[in-house]
UniProtKB/TrEMBL annotation:
This is Uncharacterized protein. Transmembrane segments: none annotated. Disulfide bonds join 72-81. InterPro entries: EGF, Transthyretin/HIU_hydrolase_sf, VWF_dom. SMART domains: EGF, VWC. The keyword Lipid metabolism does not apply. The keyword Disulfide bond applies. Residues 1-43 are annotated as: Disordered. Keywords: Disulfide bond, EGF-like domain.
């Protein structure tokens, strides 16, 4: 029902307080809390009037920054249980005695009826149709038919979201918390917590959480590294480097044959710069550098030069002399 003012007996207007304002009207004078942004919003006791607080788990909406829900007692409502429900059964309504021909009606959102208009002294305009083609209707408590009030067009929602003071376009985005996956949508920002599995690592090593990542992973093997083999291809007769020679890295397979691992070129001084490989090298495996050159000296041509080596796990400087 709707409460009445003791002095006048008139029904009071419903509270229009919002959860984010400090002037909340209700049974307590506690200001409405600001939206918490910590991972467990219940730690700041945001729920009011004896309500219980439950942190959200997994998927949750964060458009307002909340990651908790308030369970309100029966007589309260609102995001923070800050508003008292209106129970019309508890409202004592005044007795109205209307004129003859005047009917009682209860306005929308109110508990008590009141007298309508006295239609005996009212002349209505002749409205046959409304602008939208509909027929005019007589509202409760009124005398004359009326056309519906045109609805105010709703502005389109913004094409971005604001989260932690930053703007993000529609779609997935990263936050400062690597364990939180968020998406910007028309409804707001939706985030969910990432669930991690703990891997089993070899050689009794323990999983570690690397910088910028959420889930633990096994540490890199010390003997598994991208190819850092560097060296220079030198002509043994002149001592000069052989520039711009295509060079390939291959891995000798156990059953014969080879697998191409990476490609590059010697630089202007004949040095083999660092080659990027498809996968880390393995210690103890046989590899070879395959040079393709048309360099010739004293009528001896070396179109194909192969240099074999065994990876030792060190960033050694190799000197290739041909």
């Amino acid at each position: 029902g709707k409460p009445t003012e003791p002095s006048t007996g008139k029904p009071t207007e419903p509270s229009t307080a919002k959860p984010t304002t400090a002037k909340t009207q209700g049974p307590t004078n506690t200001p409405a809390p600001t939206h918490p942004t910590d991972q467990n919003g219940c730690s700041s006791s945001p729920c009011m009037n004896g309500a219980s607080c439950e942190p959200r788990r997994g998927l949750f909406m964060t458009q307002d920054g909340r990651d908790f829900d308030c369970t309100c007692p029966d007589e309260f409502e609102g995001d923070f249980c800050e508003k008292k429900k209106t129970d019309c059964n508890l409202v004592e309504c005044p007795v109205f005695k209307c004129k003859e021909g005047v009917t009682l009606f209860t306005p929308p959102g109110e508990c008590c009826p009141r007298c309508g208009e006295d239609c005996s002294a009212v002349r209505c305009a002749n409205v046959e149709k409304c602008d939208d083609g509909s027929l005019p209707l007589v509202p409760p408590g009124r005398c004359c038919p009326q056309c519906p009030t045109p609805a105010t067009p709703t502005p389109p929602p913004p094409a971005f979201c604001v989260y932690e003071g930053r703007r993000y376009p529609f779609g997935d985005f990263k936050t400062r918390n690597p364990c939180l996956h968020c998406s910007c949508m028309e409804e707001g920002v939706m985030c969910y917590s990432i669930t991690c599995d703990v891997p089993e690592c070899a050689d009794n090593t323990q999983p570690i959480v690397k910088d910028g990542e959420c889930c633990p992973s096994c540490p890199d093997k010390p003997d598994s590294m991208k190819l850092q083999v560097t060296g220079n291809l030198v002509n043994s007769m002149t001592g000069m480097g052989m520039p711009n020679v295509p060079v390939s890295l291959g891995r000798m397979e156990m059953g014969g044959g080879h697998t191409l691992m990476g490609m590059g070129n010697t630089d202007d001084m004949g040095y083999v710069t660092t080659l990027r490989t498809k996968e880390p090298l393995e210690r103890g495996r046989d590899y070879f550098l395959y040079f393709s050159t048309e360099y010739s000296f004293e009528y001896v041509q070396y179109p194909f030069i192969q240099v074999f080596f065994r990876h030792t796990g060190q960033k050694d400087m190799y000197h290739f002399t041909v």
